[in-house]
Amino acid sequence: MKVKMSDFLLERRSTVKKLITELSKEFKYVSVLGSDTHGKRYSVQRKGAAINDSMWNERGFVAKVYNGIGYSEYSFNEIDDSKVKEIAENIKKRVDKQIKNLGLDVKITKYPIIKEEKIQSSFLGEVKILPEDFSDKDIIEKLTKVKNKTLNVSELIFDASVSMQEVHVSKIFISNDKDLYQSYVWSEGYVFAMARKDDNTKVNYSGFSGLKGAEMLDEMDSKVEETAEMAIKLLSAKAVTPGEYEVVCSPDVSGIIAHEAFGHGVEMDMFVKNRAKAPQYIDKPVASSLVNMHDGATSAKNVSSYLFDDEGVIGKDTTIIENGILKRGISDTLSALRLGTKPTGNGKRTSFERKAYTRMTNTFFTAGNDTVEDMISSIKKGYLLECPSSGMEDPKNWGIQCMISYGKEIIDGKLTGNIVSPVVLTGYVPDLLKSISMVSGNVEIEGTGACGKGYKEWVKVSSGGPYIKAKVRMG
């Protein structure tokens, strides 16, 4: 079913165009982004249930104007015809004040004027069950059934937590050359199983995501036994002996490696600030020739797929690594202007009240020709790594660290049934990527998490890939 565009934004499109006409009398570039995002988070545990507003909820506008040197922005919550001149005057006054406060003795980087192609386009997503067609009561009842099913797997499962979040995103972007709007729904969910034996407590989870509605609840139900049984197996897990191992990484582990390694490592606003090593390695080998990596709103279909980014740039598919060669980075508009490149549709804001940064969208390794069975059988002593929880990378020095929930032991090409947990995967990014010797033919992408930049700028992203065989340091 087609997702409905926000009435709030549609009703204000003509007024926004009037504001742009008014501001264009003073400024050589003007654009307005309008956002109306709303959703709910549902959670159920043994002790009860809760319904809360989504952390992604927002409603408002941000105007961007060229001030003669660079770009100034002004955010506001509401607009109607009677407020157009008032908002325009406020923007003019603030820009004048900003320019005066810069002072004559301050060295300021001057940006060129953004040049845009004339585009009029729209996108309405599709889901099987629209949020408005499935009540809060229906969702809580479904989650409760999943929770009860998890608890009933074993007496060792002492608690379960099941949650789901549905978010409806609507945005407009209007300038003198662009008239764009989009509306889509994304959802994410978790099933957590908590196991206990004596004083030993372990937790395992499964995540779910996509451009989906409440139909995702059925997917969650299908993973209950698998999630709970692994939580029980973790009760007997041992600590890993630190060292270097051959490993097979599941698609979600491959995804966090891609995200941390050459996701953050090729965000081009870091190039501008000289905080990344990647510019020195463009068109040079940084990975095995088996490795190909993409990012982009159109590269895959998940929570970070869209028609246009928060700067009105149409989403793209960017090849970051091609046959092991680092080809290019991803960028927002201002970084592209500064570096003399074209923006890649990666300008994203945590909300209309915050500036746009270069951010990842759907980041993943592409498929190869190997099978998971062949990967496992080729390992003398190593692990199958699954279920990542977090990661970080240093774009300046290319160190990487990923937290993995567990590894399944492989001896003489066979899974032994032994498990190590938790696992810290570390290393130097090119060493890790150049060690990749096998890549499976299937790609899986998930978007249950969010990506932070600094300490407060969060956006939705997805990551993934095929199974990969590599050499990594574990501890």
UniProtKB/TrEMBL annotation:
Protein name (database record): TldD protein
Any one of the GO BP annotations: proteolysis
Source organism: Clostridium acidisoli DSM 12555
Gene Ontology annotations for the cellular component aspect, listed alphabetically: cytosol
Molecular function (Gene Ontology), one example: metallopeptidase activity
Stored InterPro entries: Metalloprtase-TldD/E_C (IPR045569), Peptidase_U62_metallo (IPR051463), TldD/PmbA_N (IPR035068), TldD/PmbA_sf (IPR036059)
Classification of source organism: Bacteria, Bacillati, Bacillota, Clostridia, Eubacteriales
UniProt similarity note: Belongs to the peptidase U62 family.
Metalloprotease TldD/E C-terminal domain: residues covered: 242-469
